[in-house]
């Protein structure tokens, strides 16, 4: 872990998406707010709950059953057993396990929510949850089984159970029993107090953690797609005047104007240009700012939705120790994250469609203004047996189609569950998982189109009348050629595509600083 950066502090100060991303990538240390006043405020909530138990007050999920069983009173002699039963019967998740990066984001989102001090948990619970992050003890969380209200109950049951020394965790890349890891680290497993299992599970941490990661990937993809478009304008001998500043002053959506400005910079639009083949390029070049600008403009309000959720208390009931009140509500409902992720996957899929159309132009001799068929770099005497990027374009079409198919909004598929208590649910976690999948597919499209654009630029540079590349594109092209040499004789490109995807995941190329 990088330790020279300022630590991320969990407590009263809000976190940003970038904090969660850095933490999920183990790039920053973390700490828990530790001043006496803060610790006292956290402790006061748990103490207030204990005082209510002494008075035999009725508290949902503490002295009652869960969900539709809220009308079932739990005798005081069984109250201590209730938290374990909650995480136990929710241990029914299926599907793939969340990866390490996503699991850290989930732990961070849950810890930040509980740090508001209105969930009725002990300081010791916050400390142990933080210790899981600090020591990289990662609960193995199946990603399927949440309808997004009452929060992410089933996946978060794996957090509650592993804090209690049950189920399995990942430590240093090895799958281990949680009880064994507790012993190795010298910890006593927590015995969850009344309300603590509910506080851990009854919230939006899984969808919110995934949303933070999805947002960061989409933001980088926006910059990358802009750079790929600039490379394709050069490769296709497009008209850079489509991005003129005066043109965009007439339709001043800020994000659209920003993308056009990035393209002007990449293309050095004020420099002399080559004679134009077409007065107007096809839409996938000419309208790139209009397509990418929608994503650029949307990121600001998506950030607001995600960061408010991240920095909220989103369990039920809310414990107001100062006013000595228990407030029963529905803050576990993940509607804002559901909408944000349903929106993001549509925005991102449009990027896939844009780049797919650009690649289709690149490989087709009817539209690529003199480039070889399928971008093959083979000499004339071997051109008939070489096919360059033909199959890559087919694959890109498949990835794009799948991305577009996955844009069906999850949030409208609410199902009535749990004996019609949870009769309107958010589906936010499914929306977030869909968004991650659409991003994966669109990044594959971006990787393919980037390698093809780089090949197109290289082919264009072989001409006798070739013009020098603008500085930003020249630097990018030189860096790409180190890892991805030109395709002259056909070769299998899977390894290079996977390396390009790794570079995208690492946000390797600094774009539009």
TrEMBL record:
The keyword Metal-binding does not apply. Keywords: Lyase. It catalyses: L-tyrosine = (E)-4-coumarate + NH4(+). It is an enzyme of class 4 (lyase). Its EC number is 4.3.1.23. The keyword Endoplasmic reticulum does not apply. Transmembrane segments: none annotated. One of its GO terms (biological process) is secondary metabolite biosynthetic process. InterPro entries: Aromatic_Lyase, Fumarase/histidase_N, L-Aspartase-like, Phe/His_NH3-lyase_AS. This is tyrosine ammonia-lyase. The lineage of its organism: Bacteria, Pseudomonadati, Pseudomonadota, Gammaproteobacteria, Pseudomonadales.
């Amino acid at each position: 872990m990088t330790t020279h950066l300022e630590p991320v502090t969990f407590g009263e100060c809000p976190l940003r998406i970038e904090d969660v991303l850095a933490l999920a990538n183990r790039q920053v240390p973390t700490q828990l707010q530790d001043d006496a006043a803060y610790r006292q405020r956290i402790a006061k909530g748990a103490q207030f709950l204990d005082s209510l138990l002494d008075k035999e007050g009725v508290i949902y999920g503490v002295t009652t059953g869960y969900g539709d069983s809220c009308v079932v009173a739990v005798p005081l002699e069984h109250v201590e057993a209730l938290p374990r039963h909650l995480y136990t019967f929710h241990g029914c998740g299926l599907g793939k396990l969340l990866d390490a990066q996503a699991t850290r984001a989930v732990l961070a989102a849950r810890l930040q929510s509980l740090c508001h001090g209105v969930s009725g948990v002990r300081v010791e619970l916050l400390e142990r949850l933080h210790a899981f992050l600090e020591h990289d003890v990662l609960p193995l969380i199946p990603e399927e089984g949440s309808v997004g209200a009452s929060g992410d109950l089933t996946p978060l049951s794996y957090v509650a159970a592993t804090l209690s020394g049950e189920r399995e965790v990942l430590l240093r890349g090895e799958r281990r029993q949680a009880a064994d890891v507790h012993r190795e680290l010298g910890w006593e497993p927590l015995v969850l107090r009344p309300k603590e299992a509910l506080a851990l599970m009854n919230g939006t941490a899984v969808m919110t953690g995934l949303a933070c990661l999805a947002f960061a990937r989409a933001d980088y993809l926006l910059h990358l797609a802009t750079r790929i478009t600039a490379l394709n304008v050069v490769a296709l001998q497009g008209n850079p005047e489509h991005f003129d500043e005066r043109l965009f002053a007439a339709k001043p959506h800020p994000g659209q104007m920003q993308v056009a400005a990035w393209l002007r910079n990449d293309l050095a639009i004020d420099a002399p240009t080559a004679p134009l083949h077409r007065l107007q390029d096809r839409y996938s070049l000419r309208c790139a700012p209009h397509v990418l600008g929608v994503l650029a403009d949307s990121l600001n309000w998506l950030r607001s939705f995600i960061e408010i959720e991240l920095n909220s208390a989103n369990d039920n009931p809310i414990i107001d120790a100062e006013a000595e009140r228990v407030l029963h509500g529905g803050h576990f409902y993940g509607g804002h994250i559901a909408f944000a992720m349903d929106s993001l996957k549509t925005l991102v899929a449009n990027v896939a469609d844009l780049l797919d159309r650009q690649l289709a132009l690149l490989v087709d001799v009817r539209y690529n203004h003199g480039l070889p068929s399928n971008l093959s770099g083979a000499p004339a005497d071997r051109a008939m047996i070489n096919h360059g990027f033909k199959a890559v374009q087919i694959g890109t079409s498949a990835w794009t189609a799948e991305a577009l198919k996955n844009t069906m909004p999850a949030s409208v598929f609410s199902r009535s569950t749990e004996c019609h208590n949870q009769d309107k649910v958010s589906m936010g976690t499914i929306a977030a998982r869909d968004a991650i999948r659409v991003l994966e597919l669109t990044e594959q499209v971006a990787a393919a189109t980037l390698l093809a654009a780089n090949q197109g630029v290289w082919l264009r540079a072989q001409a006798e009348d070739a013009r020098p590349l603008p500085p930003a594109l020249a630097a990018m092209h030189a860096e790409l050629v180190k890892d991805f040499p030109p395709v002259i004789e056909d070769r299998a490109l899977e390894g290079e595509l996977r390396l390009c995807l790794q570079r995208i995941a690492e946000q390797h190329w600094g774009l539009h600083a």
